[in-house]
Amino acid sequence: xxxxxxxxxxxxxxxxxxxxxxxxxxxxxxxxxxxxxxxxxxxxxxxxxxxxxxxxxxxxxxxxxxxxxxxxxxxxxxxxxxxxxxxxxxxxxxxxxxxxxxxxxxxxxxxxxxxxxxxxxxxxxxxxxxxxxxxxxxxxxxxxxxxxxxxxxxxxxxxxxxxxxxxxxxxxxxxxxxxxxxxxxxxxxxxxx
Length: 193
What we know:
With 193 residues, the chain is mostly helical. It has helices at 3-25, 30-34, 44-68, 82-91, 120-140, 163-186; strands spanning 150-152, 160-162. The termini are far apart.
């Protein structure tokens, strides 16, 4: 896999996430943001807050690893790690917009049952800011070796993603939950206002 192309692809996907947050979801009413298709399904606000929760782990870790990494050692090729590639493919929505199989969320990443107490604008502003920061990291990574820089996963420090896999996994994860949020808007009974 070409490292330059990987960074370009992940940058484009991150820009698409920012556009979806800004142009499709951010201006929905509190009623729409907190509406759930059923009691066991997440609202739009819960989907976005879940992304924020994941970003609160990964962004400081990525920043730390980038800051400590040797610069000007980029390689043309990126070889996905076995686990990083597997988890990315499991997380990635299908090309037709379908979310593959249900996945259990780790308890520490479950959206709080009190998301209705959250300010929707604050949740979206935080998520957009996270993605702008991720986009900056992606651009900064052009002079790094995406195979050698390792980022601890949210599961724990034993599992460490290659930086390229970390970007791929996070983008797939965020796309999955934005698609989940968009599907809430398509569910029967979604409020008009």
